[in-house]
């Protein structure tokens, strides 16, 4: 694919109402050509609805959709040149693998010999060379996934949309496919909009992630930005596995949690705040005085659970809040493992101290 | 075995029901080969004469061909219309359309005799009684529900996302339906068409009211001839009709089996 067709996508204040229910409440989004953007959110937050509007399957109640400079809001799907992959793949069961992939080319009246070439190339690019004559019913879940992908890219679309395309696969296959999708994205230079409710998947694959809640985009940022600078408690809770504990603001960059005062990396706005404590960022430490740039907490060890590569210990803080810490389960650690019921100190880097405003 | 008595009763009941379904048909077929001038059972001897009487008679043949023509034409109308209606009912979110479904089903809910009388009165006003056009319209209307219900059932288990994908891949709405949806709901459409055809072929009550003159239908002629004389020609015609219907049903079920097997 020498010259890429992929376009930037701009959503302008998209609203969608079903009777008196607003599924989307003013969504704006700017996506650069070649960018991989994930839309992440809990069930019912409007992810699919947004994707359907970009695909042209549903019309927005208000707002506009632009591909590059062209306003495509009223353009039907067949004129948009987009490749879509749905959760259940929506392959055509009455056609063979090759016929499925040739479908968009036939629809475009591509000459037969060109169709053959391009189908063969698409099959190779998803590692399915030689599978062209198989009926869809004989394919495994992962193979169907690849056929759907090949069908979505074979006609060199302007944009690729995916709605939870990996959620029907088991964990190992899903992780392998995530890597493949990433490299395919790099290879094609494709603009991809990817819907998922799996935060790890979104962080793994995307250039940027848009977090949705109840029909609105709450935050759009790079995976790292989302992780270290969530805008509020909803994002902090949804991204990463953290425990939110209310804290009191005692300075521009300081909060109090129980009796401990913790430093923060950025200025804090006044108002209700909470800290997002992630099990992975808390390290057991001794009684030595804290180095600069380190926050310390004390608590009582509760239950310790073996989870394979790590141990998860619950920790009751002085204020009464219950959090978790994770300790790698190799034997260097086993010697220093605190007993259940003992008093321990944990440290947390200031840069990892995520304090977010609480939304109503 | 404790369950043997209930099982035995179940077998007897099943047998009785099957016999009740099949016996009348069997008796008609046996009598159609009778050599007696009267409809007596068991027939005194075997002959083909009543088949000869049926196939050799000009009026019977005209009525038969007319019925086949009317059934074909009305099927040609109600299959696309019923399919389109089922499609609309399936994809539409509008509550109004959902209520309109009931209107489509009225022909099977209203007693046929009322329908026939109503048709007669309306047709009398517009001069459609005893015309092919009138009969085709009436049969199409009456058999629309069969196509509608059958296709709707097929669409309910069809994944509409496939059509969305087909559209995103470059086909218009109608082309997407023809290339992707229709091939997959074809068995339901065929079943609907079959019922519509057979229904039109043996529709009697409405024919009695609005057919006539040039445009005689086979069931109407059978009914009329039963009033005058009772001879086994009727049995021969019935046997021929049963064979035709049966052949169609078997054919369509064979087709759907090979499809599933593929
Ligand atoms: N056709 C419709 N009619 C009425 N309400 C709808 C319709 N489609 C979606 N909704 C509502 O809009 C909201 C958003 O739905 P949407 O399918 O976009 O959620 P989602 O984020 O994709 O969820 P999931 O993760 O479960 O797929 C939901 O509350 C849903 O009930
Ligand atoms: Mg969804």
Q: How is this fold's topology laid out?
A:
The complex is a heterodimer of chains A (about 350) and B (about 260).
Chain A: E1 9-18, E2 21-31, E3 36-40, H1 47-55, E4 62-67, E5 70-71, E6 82-85, H2 97-107, H3 112-125, H4 141-153, E7 159-163, H5 171-188, E8 192-196, H6 199-205, E9 208-213, E10 216-221, H7 223-228, H8 233-238, E11 242-251, E12 254-257, E13 260-263, E14 273-278, E15 283-285, E16 294-306, E17 310-317, E18 322-328, H9 331-336, E19 343-349, E20 354-357
Helix pairs in contact in A: 2-3, 2-4, 3-4
Chain B: H1 4-32, H2 49-56, H3 58-91, H4 95-109, H5 112-126, H6 132-156, H7 161-168, H8 173-201, H9 205-210, H10 218-228, H11 233-261
Helix pairs in contact in B: 1-11, 2-11, 3-6, 3-8, 4-6, 6-8, 7-8, 8-11
The structure holds adenosine-5'-triphosphate and magnesium ion (MG).
Task: Give a structural overview.
The complex is a heterodimer of chains A (360) and B (262). Chain A has 9 helices and 20 strands. Chain A is α+β, with helices and mostly antiparallel strands. Chain A has a 6-stranded mixed β-sheet, with helices on both faces. Chain A has a 5-stranded antiparallel β-sheet with strand order 13-12-11-14-20. In chain A, strands 15-19-16-17-18 form a 5-stranded antiparallel β-sheet, with no helix packed on it. In chain A, helix 2 runs parallel beside helix 4. The longest helix of chain A is centred in the middle third of the chain and has 18 residues. Chain B has one domain: MetI-like (MetI-like fold). Chain B contains 11 helices and no strands. The two termini of chain B are 42 Å apart. Chains A and B meet through strand 6 and helix 2 of A and helix 7 and helix 8 of B. Bound molecules: adenosine-5'-triphosphate and magnesium ion (MG). The site of magnesium ion has 3 residues of chain A, from helix 1.
């Amino acid at each position: 694919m020498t010259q890429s067709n992929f376009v930037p996508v701009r959503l302008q204040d998209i609203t969608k109402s079903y009777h008196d229910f607003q599924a989307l409440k003013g969504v704006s989004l700017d996506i650069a050509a070649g960018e991989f953007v994930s839309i992440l959110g809990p069930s019912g937050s409007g992810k699919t609805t947004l994707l359907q509007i970009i695909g042209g399957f549903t019309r927005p109640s208000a707002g506009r959709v632009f591909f590059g400079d062209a306003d495509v809001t009223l353009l039907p799907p067949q004129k948009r040149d987009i490749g879509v992959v749905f959760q259940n793949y929506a392959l055509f069961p009455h056609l063979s693998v090759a016929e499925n992939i040739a479908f968009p080319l036939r629809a475009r009246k591509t000459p037969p010999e060109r169709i053959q070439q391009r189908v063969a190339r698409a099959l190779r690019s998803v590692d399915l060379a030689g599978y062209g004559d198989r009926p869809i019913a004989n394919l495994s879940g992962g193979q169907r996934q690849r056929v759907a992908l090949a069908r979505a890219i074979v006609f060199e679309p302007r944009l690729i949309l995916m709605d939870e395309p990996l959620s029907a696969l088991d964990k190992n296959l899903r992780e392998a496919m995530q890597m493949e999708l990433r490299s395919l994205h790099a290879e094609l230079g494709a603009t991809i909009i990817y819907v998922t409710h799996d935060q790890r998947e979104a962080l793994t694959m995307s250039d940027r992630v848009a977090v949705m809640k109840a029909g609105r985009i709450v935050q759009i940022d790079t995976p790292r930005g989302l992780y270290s600078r969530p805008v509020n408690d909803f994002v902090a809770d949804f991204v990463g596995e953290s425990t939110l504990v209310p804290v009191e603001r005692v300075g521009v960059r300081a909060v109090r949690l129980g009796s401990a005062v913790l430093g923060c990396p950025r200025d804090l706005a006044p108002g209700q705040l909470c800290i997002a404590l992630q099990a992975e960022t808390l390290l057991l430490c001794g009684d030595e005085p804290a180095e600069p740039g380190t926050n310390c907490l004390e608590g009582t060890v509760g239950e310790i659970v073996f989870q394979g590569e790590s141990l998860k210990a619950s920790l009751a803080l002085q204020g009464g809040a219950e959090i978790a810490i994770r300790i790698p389960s190799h034997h260097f650690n086993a010697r220093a493992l605190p007993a259940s019921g003992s008093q321990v100190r944990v440290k947390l880097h200031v840069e990892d101290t995520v304090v977010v405003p609480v939304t109503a | 075995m404790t369950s043997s008595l209930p099982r035995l009763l179940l077998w007897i009941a099943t047998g009785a029901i099957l016999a009740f379904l099949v016996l009348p048909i069997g008796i008609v077929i046996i009598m159609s080969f009778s050599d007696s001038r009267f409809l007596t059972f068991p027939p005194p001897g075997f002959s083909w004469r009543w088949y000869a009487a049926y196939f050799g008679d000009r009026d019977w043949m005209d009525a038969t061909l007319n019925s086949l023509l009317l059934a074909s034409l009305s099927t040609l109308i109600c299959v696309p219309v019923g399919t389109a209606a089922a499609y609309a009912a399936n994809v539409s979110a509008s509550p109004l359309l959902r209520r309109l479904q009931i209107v489509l089903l009225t022909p099977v809910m209203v007693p046929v005799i009322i329908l026939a009388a109503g048709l007669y009165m309306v047709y009398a006003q517009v001069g459609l009684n005893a015309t092919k056009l009138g009969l085709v319209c009436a049969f199409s209307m009456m058999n629309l529900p069969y196509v509608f219900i059958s296709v709707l059932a097929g669409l309910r288990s069809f994944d509409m996302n496939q059509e969305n994908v087909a559209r995103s891949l470059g086909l218009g709405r109608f082309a997407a339906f023809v290339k992707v949806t229709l091939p997959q709901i074809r068995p339901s459409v065929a079943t609907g068409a079959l019922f519509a055809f057979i229904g039109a072929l043996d529709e009697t009550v409405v024919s009695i009211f609005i057919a006539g003159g040039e445009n005689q239908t086979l069931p109407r002629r059978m009914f009329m001839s039963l009033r005058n004389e009772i001879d086994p020609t009727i049995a021969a015609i019935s046997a021929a009709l049963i064979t035709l219907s049966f052949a169609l049903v078997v054919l369509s079920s064979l087709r759907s089996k090979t499809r599933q097997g593929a």
